[in-house]
Structures are given as C-alpha cells and as structure tokens.
Amino acid sequence: MISIDLSGKTAVITGAGQGLGLATARMLHRAGASVAISFFEDGEGRNRRQAEDSAASLGERAIAVEGDVRSRESVAMMFERVTEEFGGIDIVINNAAIIRDRSIAKMEDAEWSAVIETNLTGVYHVCREAASRINDGGRIVSMASISGFVGFFGQANYSAAKAGVVGLTKVLSKELAKRGITVNAVAPGVVLTEMGQSIPDPAREEMLKLVPLGRFGEPDEIASAILFLCSDLASYVTGQTIHVNGGWFG
Fold first, then answer.
1. Distance of alpha carbon 246 from alpha carbon 237, whole angstroms
2. Is the pTM of this model over 0.90?
3. Domains defined along the chain, listed by start
4. Of 115, 145, 149, 178, which has the fewest beta carbons less than 10 angstroms from its beta carbon?
5. Do 54 and 14 contact (CB within 8 A), yes or no?
6. Distance of alpha carbon 205 from alpha carbon 210, whole angstroms
7. Among residues 40, 79, 149, 158, which one is catalytic?
8. Neighbours of 4 (CB within 10 A)
9. What is the pLDDT of residues 209-231, one digit of tens each?
10. Closest by CA position to 39, among listed 58, 29, 25
11. Angle at alpha carbon of residue 114, lines to 184 and 67, rounded to 5°
12. At what angle do helices 156-175 and 122-131 cross, to 10 degrees?
C-alpha cells in the first residue's frame, strides 16, 4: 500500500478559514501535518472567528494565525508566529483570494487594484518571505484558476492575477530548485465553495455544459491534488500547473 504521510511537517495555508483553503487544511492535517490557518483582520472579527473555529475543529497540531497577504510585514510576522509554535515551515499554500467581478468598461480602478493586490501581489509577498524561511526540500503550492487560462467575462482583474500566479510559479521553481524546494500551482475549474456558488445560476448552467465529467468539482478533489504536490510522490514535479477541472480545459 502507498500512503502519504506528512507527519513532522508544518504547513501554512493562507485564507484557510473556509472553502478550498479549509478543505486543504483538513486534508494535510489528516495526512499528519501540523497546519497554520491564516486570516486577515477584517475589522469585524468574522475572519478571525472562522479561522479559530476551523483550527479548533481540527484539534491538535492546528492554529489560527493572523497574516494579511497584502502586507509583507504582516506575512513575516505570520511566519515567525508559526515557526515559534511548530519549529519550522515545510509547506506553504497560497490560497487567499478575492473576486470583484465587473466588465472592464465598468470596472473601478479600486476593484482592479484590490484583486491584483490580494491574488497576485499577496502570493509574491508570501513566496518572498517563504523563500528564506521554508526548510530545504519544502513545497510551495499556489492556487491558480481555469480563469487564468480561459478568461471569463467580467474577470479581467481575477484572470490577470491568476495568470500571473502561473508565471510566478515557473520562475520560483527555477530559483528555489537548488534547495530541493518544489513550486507548483493548481488550477481548479468551478468548485462548489462559497465563491463558486456566487456565480449566477444561468452562467453556471452554461459552464456546466463545457465540463466533460458533467459536474462541478468538490473542495476535497482540489485538496487531493494539493496533497499530492506536497508529498514525496511529487518530488520531481516542479514549475507545473495541475488542472483539476473535470476535463474542461488542459
């Protein structure tokens, strides 16, 4: 029997209080890893409560830690907190993301900037800090999206950011290879998380027609691909984007 055992490893997952981030935290925790669920303080305490509740649901080897990916200083403090708690960092999952959909003719500059700042610059901040902190042989996995390859109406900001994540992944895979650190991305199709369910029903119906498997993805199906990339089974996989979309694209 081949099994994936991440015992003794520590994973940091950004924006992991819900959705794909939480599914990934649960998956890595079940494989034996210690997990840090990061959140940014939204002023209302909602994100903190989500992260703390999620960590508590996992039990031992799980903590919630504040870390705003838009701020490199906040990211640095997040990594320091995790290192103090668990002694080191082996896995970093870039999951934090937002959407501000609008056609480019109607898009406000603030909507463009907010998405780029979180979804692309945030990944840069996390990877830049992780590069000097992650243990040799570590794993970095960033969440891309089918949107970065297909491009959906009203998602100029989101598609551009996710396409940028793919390019950043390729560069970092070369820069960190000498330390045995692999850097990959996972590009989900439509997944039935809160974000996926926010897509208007008529648009979802049209999207579903393009999926050969005839259904949308489940969070655990994306988390399973991430688990593989974090494991020793993927030790020779780096600089790649794994498409998990039911055959829609790729």
1. 21
2. yes
3. 10-244 (3.40.50.720)
4. 178
5. no
6. 9
7. 158
8. 18
9. 999 999 999 999 999 999 999 99
10. 25
11. 60
12. 10
